[in-house]
Amino acid sequence: MTQLAANSQEYYDLFREVKSLIDENSSNKLNQYREEAIEKFKSLGGFPTTKVEDYKYTNIDSIFGYDYGIDLKNLSSKLPFKNECDIPVKDAYTLYLRNGYFIPNEDLTELEKKGIIVCTLQEASLKHEDLFTKYYNKKAGESDHSIVALNTAFAEDGLFIFVPEKTELDKPIQLLNFLHATSDLLINARHLFIVESQAKVQFLDCTHALDCRKFLTNTVVELFAEKNAKAEYYNLQNQFDKSTILLNLFVGQKRDSEVITTILSLHAEKIRNNVAVDLEDENCDNHTYGLYLAGAKEHVDNFTAINHIAPHCNSWEHFKGILNGKATTAFCGRIHVYKDAQKTEAYQTNNNLVLSNNAKANTKPQLIIEADDVSCSHGATVGQLDEEAIYYLQTRGIPYNEAYRLMMTAFMNEVTEKIQIPELKERIEKLITNKMLGKITYCEACNNKCVDQ
Amino acid sequence: MIKITDLHAEIDGKEILKGLSLEVKAGEVHAIMGPNGAGKSTLANVLSGNEAYEVTKGEVLFEGKDLLDLSVEDRAKEGLFLGFQYPVEIPGVSMINFLKIAHAEHRKYRGLEPLSASEFLKLLKEKKALVEIDSKLTNRSVNEGFSGGEKKKNEIFQMAMLDPKLAILDETDSGLDIDALRIVAGGVNKLRRKDNATIIITHYQRLLEHIVPDFVHVLADGKIVKSGPKELALELEEKGYDWLTR
């Protein structure tokens, strides 16, 4: 690689400058990954611009061109607020994070009683070294996305959850990450979730911005489902007008496992989700879902790669979006069926409902099939609201607004009906309605009204 | 019930209704027949408030109120029902939810609370029996994947649920086999009362063997060109429309 462009060089230099400080605030184990990661960041060419095919619709370079602060001494162990927030799910084990750093609370004890290990990554790297070494950066380290390498270089800490064999949880584990800062901030959040064989768990990951600052979160989540495990991971992206969300989600599945991931993109200035799923052993089921509502000048880009490495695996992928105002969205879904992955069944659908003349939806399915006995399909639609259906509803006495709301909810139904946490499903449906009616979508109890400031 | 006077309406600048007048009183069933392109469906759409059509002249009084001044939904809640020629499929909106909302809106308009869940289910069951509609259909999305006959039955089922004062049935017989026709007609007959009225728009005399109208009107080139008793339908069947439009 020749010279890095200015923004990338700046971060490369910054790393060199602050590496000792990062090391000091992290663990030796975590530090061992940094050097290789920053060089990988460099060799991948740094931040991609829209000239890079996989980033055609989202300019990462310009996102990092903004002068964000970076907090390397986040040692606060307190939550920055009195907990009166309108949390997504009340019936859950709730874990709190501040700017990506885990802050233990009493729900942790309950989880520990059930044998679940919940701790910081630093602690895991010391106390559970075998597990840490076996899993940490195993998927992320193979990624060709330079922002993932950047995260590995900079992330000092994060959350570690280990669900032991045959453990089933009665309630979801809910992660509430609060962004709190006195200046604009870049956060490299990093989580590692391991679901052991025959264990069953639901994760709900939700980030709230508490201050009217520009926040850029570059999050890496690695989720491993061992033999016959069942894991669900929901990511609720509902921040505010100045937030940029970069989510890099890696899923590794072993034999007979089932994983459902759902990304719910409701509110942020810019969102880019990279999802990579590896079906490594036979007979895995994977469901990768997403819904996005983008209005005003919001931008949502979902980039997914489902890798069928082993035979007899099934995957279902469905992303649905509604666009309004001057919103832009992109969906790129890549299904890669490896040579040995015979009897693969892989299905992919992306549907877009475009409500305004100025909104733009891009969609790009990609199938790479190397095996010869597989069943794959993909479908993409970009359409407008069915005015005739609204008229039909109106002739039955249903007012226009209500008919409109019904149509929106119906459109999203194929994704929302797959949410396995009833309370979350209900809440998402309400949030969709609110957003469609132009109301706020973030939590109503929040003192902080960041919209349009 | 409804009094239409000198109604003119156009779509995309093309005049379709050219001075149509018609009065329907409570307890009556009127049939409107006529050749293709005469304006039959336009009349149905104009009365129910489809915005694609523009009324350029004329007046419609519905129970003494200026109908053309009302929104689509308010016309429905005043008691006007349109049975669609081509009922729209609405994936993702369940029949039950749709009916529940529509029924509650009608009640709200009259200052009433929505029915309780059990009351609503009771009503649903009662009306389902009336049109012999399969429970499987009411558990699905609105009209989604319904056969032609099921869609038409579903229109009559909705009519039964909403209990309108005036029902306009647009080509309800089209695409029906004889059994479905019998069920649909049977449903309409059972809903017939002294205080409601029906306008049947149809191409064929066949439906009128099952639903006997009090009056038959011939609509041609945007106007009613002939009105008469039910026997007029038979005459039309025999002679066609040419002798009236020449």
Automatic annotation (TrEMBL), chain A:
<dbReference type="InterPro" id="IPR055346">
    <property type="entry name" value="Fe-S_cluster_assembly_SufBD"/>
</dbReference>
<feature type="domain" description="SUF system FeS cluster assembly SufBD core">
    <location>
        <begin position="182"/>
        <end position="411"/>
    </location>
</feature>
<dbReference type="Pfam" id="PF19295">
    <property type="entry name" value="SufBD_N"/>
</dbReference>
<dbReference type="InterPro" id="IPR000825">
    <property type="entry name" value="SUF_FeS_clus_asmbl_SufBD_core"/>
</dbReference>
<dbReference type="InterPro" id="IPR045595">
    <property type="entry name" value="SufBD_N"/>
</dbReference>
<dbReference type="InterPro" id="IPR037284">
    <property type="entry name" value="SUF_FeS_clus_asmbl_SufBD_sf"/>
</dbReference>
<feature type="domain" description="SUF system FeS cluster assembly SufBD N-terminal">
    <location>
        <begin position="7"/>
        <end position="175"/>
    </location>
</feature>
<dbReference type="Pfam" id="PF01458">
    <property type="entry name" value="SUFBD_core"/>
</dbReference>
<dbReference type="InterPro" id="IPR011542">
    <property type="entry name" value="SUF_FeS_clus_asmbl_SufD"/>
</dbReference>
<dbReference type="GO" id="GO:0016226">
    <property type="term" value="P:iron-sulfur cluster assembly"/>
</dbReference>
<protein>
    <submittedName>
        <fullName>Fe-S cluster assembly protein SufD</fullName>
    </submittedName>
</protein>
<comment type="similarity">
    <text>Belongs to the iron-sulfur cluster assembly SufBD family.</text>
</comment>
UniProtKB/TrEMBL annotation, chain B:
<comment type="similarity">
    <text>Belongs to the ABC transporter superfamily. Ycf16 family.</text>
</comment>
<dbReference type="GO" id="GO:0005524">
    <property type="term" value="F:ATP binding"/>
</dbReference>
<keyword id="KW-0067">ATP-binding</keyword>
<dbReference type="Pfam" id="PF00005">
    <property type="entry name" value="ABC_tran"/>
</dbReference>
<feature type="domain" description="ABC transporter">
    <location>
        <begin position="2"/>
        <end position="246"/>
    </location>
</feature>
<dbReference type="InterPro" id="IPR003593">
    <property type="entry name" value="AAA+_ATPase"/>
</dbReference>
<keyword id="KW-0547">Nucleotide-binding</keyword>
<dbReference type="InterPro" id="IPR027417">
    <property type="entry name" value="P-loop_NTPase"/>
</dbReference>
<dbReference type="InterPro" id="IPR010230">
    <property type="entry name" value="FeS-cluster_ATPase_SufC"/>
</dbReference>
<protein>
    <submittedName>
        <fullName>Fe-S cluster assembly ATP-binding protein</fullName>
    </submittedName>
</protein>
<dbReference type="GO" id="GO:0016887">
    <property type="term" value="F:ATP hydrolysis activity"/>
</dbReference>
<dbReference type="InterPro" id="IPR003439">
    <property type="entry name" value="ABC_transporter-like_ATP-bd"/>
</dbReference>
